[in-house]
Amino acid sequence: MKKTIFVLILVLVPALAYSSAASDFTVNRQSTYAVPRDVSRVLILDLTLPEASEDGTLKLESIKIHNAGSATHVDISELMIWEDGDSAGWDNDETEAARILTAPFFDTEISGSFREYSRGERWQRIFVTVDTTSAALYIPERTIKPELVVNSVIFSDSTANGPADANVTGFERKIRHDASIPTTPVTPLAKNAEALSTSTIRWHFIDLSNNEFGFKILDAELNEVARNETSNLSYIDETGLEPNTKYSGRRVVAFNDKGENLGASTAIFPAIWTLALPEVTEEEVEEEEIPEEEEIPEEEEEAEKPISEMTRTELKEKIAEIQRQIIELLQQLIQLLQQQIAEF
Known about the structure:
- The structure is a single chain.
- With 344 residues, the protein is an alpha+beta fold.
- It has two domains: 11-176, Immunoglobulin-like, CATH 2.60.40; 189-273, Sandwich (Immunoglobulin-like), CATH 2.60.40.10.
- It has helices at residues 2-12, 14-18, 282-289, 298-304, 312-343, and strands spanning 26-27, 42-48, 57-64, 66-67, 76-83, 95-100, 109-111, 116-118, 125-132, 141-144, 146-148, 153-155, 168-169, 173-176, 189-195, 201-206, 214-218, 224-228, 235-238, 246-247, 251-256, 259-260, 272-273.
- Strands 1-2-9-5-6 form a five-stranded antiparallel sheet, with no helix packed on it. Strands 3, 7, 8 and 12 form a four-stranded antiparallel sheet that branches.
- 26% of the residues are buried.
């Protein structure tokens, strides 16, 4: 009976041993908002794929997306899959990998020109967007809640296929007749900067929008230097800076799946310096470089003192000490002679 149960377990769960588990897929949560009909590129899934093995690579071959919400194919006109760009996150530098123009958009295998990736590479993160239709059918609300059901993702290495043990559920998006047309978030108001250390500055700002996915700090050339994919923040820390260095021209922007707004001058922070390294004084350098002299015992100091410099009392004490040492030596010699005589 025990053998039968053991064999049955091996038959039922080979995928758990040789495929990716649901925990290997990471859904990057976004603070979403409702959208009306006839909107393009609505982000419905932000997903980080399983890491490749230490000495191997992976390539996504196909993916099947199930909708656990109420939206159907009549609510969707297009579905697209994107791979992350040089800057991490959904920020308009992504590369199109697959596009579906006709129904069914859900529960069908979607293959595309996916790239091979190695452990730790940034573009193992993918995004799924849909275009909503302007269907005349009046339904107050439809929902899109994407899921990766068991064994719905196929990789170039079959041992990574999955998820093998459970479904992976994304965030929910709503399609509502009374929703506003989505726009880029209102630019935050830059307040002040705070030097936290020799390498970190905290940029404080006021969030003025209610539809952002997160915030970014840009330098004077509009290159991203810090980022946080969380809504309703009041500051971002920028790390990896140089000590005692002035940083100016930094600005804060909020972003969502519609992009970001760079136009407001109120988003630019005043210049600030990072903290300087602590100064080392000459005395501290000397203390570190010059070792302290070892203390000489008083007896050694007296032995090294010239006889000509001794006082009468010191000289008498010195003679008495020498006499004591001579007596001890003679006693040792006598004991040695006595031992030798006894042996004869």
